[in-house]
Amino acid sequence: MSDFAQTGVICTLQRLNDTHLAPLDAEWLPNRAARNSVSLVLPCHAPDLQQPALRHICDQLAGAQWLHHVVIPINGLPDSEQHAVRLRFAQQLPIAHTLLFTDSPPLNDALALAAGRPKGTLRPGKGLNVWAALGWLHAQRIGGIYALQDADVLSFNRPTLARLCFALAEEDLQFDFAKMYYSRVTDRLYGRVSRLFLTPLLHALVRVLGHHPLLDFLQGFRYPLAGECALRASLASSLPFHEGWSLEIGMLCEVFRRIEPSRVCQVDGGTGYDHKHQPATGGLLSMCEQVGTALLQQLSIEGCNIDHTIREALLRALQRETTQAVRRSNALARLNGITTDPALETANALNFTSTLHSHSVPTAQALPSWETVERVQPIALELLLNSEKVRN
């Protein structure tokens, strides 16, 4: 049974039962979506196209009466394979959809022009893919609600996504941004970057800097690094976007600056949300480095002076907080009969923390909002729409 506690500045919408899921998916959301269309962004890397998770997601989405359009931005796919991929999606996803091959020269040229940067400085991956898809929706003047869904979720089910979108589609609820949260548990606890790095880092920052509105906002989220969220088209068009692993933390910081916390909620996605798991010594270290760098950069933008003295104090506080994080995770696992290895968790936490030892915070240039692109470089939107690589 879920709790119904409300803590912090973010409204939490727990999943108290499952009896509402069928009517929400079949009746409640379709009725609202008729007035407030829902479009989905499903970012993919080329390897995702061969995985059973994506086929399962397409099968689930095929029955979504409330879904107006699906935009599928893809990177890492050779031009020679694009036609076959188009045919596959035409068979698997019998609803309106658009494929964007973000590596293809015509589209990549349009994105570089929109970003105001040389092509070689664009970082391929999820951040660029999401930004491109939102640009396409903006250029098409498709308004309403945009949802973002990761393509590697084996346990995906449509009513859970419908529930996330309903939080915005039901306008009486007065939300403009909804973030999904869920437990990353199989035979062991996952969500390691959130559990052993980001959450302790936020606690340590409060210890060193004191309470700050941005830190209080971020601490209100149960899973700030979740990739699934929904937001109004007007908000999406106003947001700069971050590339790489800093996409999610950067988006939350930009949302913080643009809307009141009362317009933000987080929606319970249930248990057993099974993502692809990254190796702790490879991809997760890079993720920690990018998330930590982005967070410190965002605090600098907010006026916090992250100098050498603050950084040293932060590392000392983080050591204490990660020890507590490992202890809490161990208690949670053992109380639920889940395999746990505190020594390995401690080693992972130390490795994650080591990514903060740099004495400078490199600046990462965010991709501009599509409102800015339309004002400064409107030809980029035309190129995005007119490129033959974008057409289906």
Total domain units? 1
- What is the string of helix and strand elements? EHEEHEHEHHEHEHHEHHEHHHHH
- pLDDT average, as an integer? 93
Q: CATH topology, anyone? A: Spore Coat Polysaccharide Biosynthesis Protein SpsA, Chain A
Give a structural overview.
The protein is of the alpha/beta class and 392 residues long. The chain is 48% helix and 10% strand. Helix 7 (192-209) runs parallel beside helix 11 (283-301), helix 7 packs across helix 13 and helix 10 (247-258) packs parallel to helix 11 (283-301). It is globular and about 55 Å long.
Which key features would you list for this structure?
392 residues; 10% strand; Spore Coat Polysaccharide Biosynthesis Protein SpsA, Chain A; 15 helices; alpha/beta; 48% helix
Write the layout of secondary structure elements.
Layout: E1 11-13, H1 21-33, E2 38-41, E3 44-45, H2 52-61, E4 67-75, H3 82-92, E5 97-101, H4 105-115, H5 126-139, E6 145-148, H6 158-169, E7 177-181, H7 192-209, H8 213-219, E8 229-232, H9 233-238, H10 247-258, E9 264-268, H11 283-301, H12 308-335, H13 342-354, H14 370-376, H15 379-386
Parallel strand pairs: 1-9, 2-4, 2-6, 3-4, 4-5, 7-9
Antiparallel strand pairs: 6-8, 7-8
Helix pairs in contact: 1-6, 4-15, 7-11, 7-12, 7-13, 10-11, 12-13
